[in-house]
Amino acid sequence: MSTGQPVILGEMPSLSKLYVNAAAQAARRRILGAHDLPALPGDSHEVRGVAVDVGNLTAYQHLVGETASDVLPAGFIHALSFPLAMSVLNRDDFPLPLLGMIHLSNTVANLRPLVFTDTLDMTSRVENLRGHRAGTQVDVVTEVRQAGRALPCWRGVSTYLAKGVFLPGIDKPSTAPARPDFTAPDPTASWQLGVDTGRAYAAVSGDFNPIHLSVLSAKALGMRRSIAHGMYLASRALADVGPARGDAFTWDVSFDAPVFLPCRVALEIRSTHGGGAEPGRSDFVAWSPRSGRRHFAGSVTAL
């Protein structure tokens, strides 16, 4: 039973073990059935005293195109805290299956810079279980603080969809939100992504989800080819925004269509300088130059 108290973990969870456990959990649910009365666990998970591996930070910066710096990129903090977030989704009392979840969107508030010498405390929880036209969605909220401090320096909200999972008592929206037509603008950048893109990001993030690693492992999970990690793409767009984002900013991204590897991705970034009460803002959108289909879009707004 959930108590609403934080569950203190002795160390950062292992993603590989979480995925193995999620596969076993999925098998049990097929046999035993789903929860009759779905509810989210009230407990948060917390891990304290997390240290940053400088070699891993450098490899991440190089991979996504961030400038070498002591400051931790916002996307790196997401990757660093990702196993903790997944551990909440892997609980026995979490009503949705972890495997097969689709990342719909991400919102990050990078409130103040963290550097590689900082020791970090992290907390993750789930909230806002709700219907979606294609299944059920949920938010995972993660906060990262300097060790011993009360206020977060970084806060992320990731929205995931359990496609095809309709829980009793969770209403499905009667209509889908209208999506405006997309016409590809003139690109400001072009990325050539190789077949090894997923494996390269997995090496720096620890996220070895099989759908990202190879054609064979992706096909085993129903994909026609491997796909790029959404947060790799979003983090690369954030790096391309560059110094215009400032030290404190919000970073929003919504994912529309998967990026199958290998491929080319076109990107447009449009920045406006703030003036008076208006903050500076950069909007970005990425699409397939071959099909014209939009892959993802988002914005970076100075705080």
Main β sheet profile: 11 strands, mixed
SSE run: EHEHHEEEEEHHHEEEE
Instruction: Give me the number of helical elements.
Output: 6
The average pLDDT is 91
Which CATH class of the largest domain applies here? Alpha Beta
Structural class: alpha+beta
Gross geometry: globular
Structural notes for this entry:
The protein has 303 residues and is an alpha+beta fold. The chain has 2 domains: 7-163, Roll (Thiol Ester Dehydrase, Chain A); 189-302, Hotdog Thioesterase (Thiol Ester Dehydrase, Chain A), CATH 3.10.129. The chain contains 6 helices and 11 strands. α2 (54-64) runs antiparallel to α4.
Topology (elements, then pairings):
Layout: E1 7-9, H1 15-32, E2 45-50, H2 54-64, H3 74-89, E3 102-110, E4 120-132, E5 135-146, E6 154-163, E7 189-193, H4 197-205, H5 215-219, H6 230-241, E8 249-255, E9 263-272, E10 281-287, E11 294-302
Parallel strand pairs: 1-2
Antiparallel strand pairs: 2-4, 3-6, 3-8, 4-5, 5-6, 7-9, 8-11, 9-10, 10-11
Helix pairs in contact: 2-4, 3-6
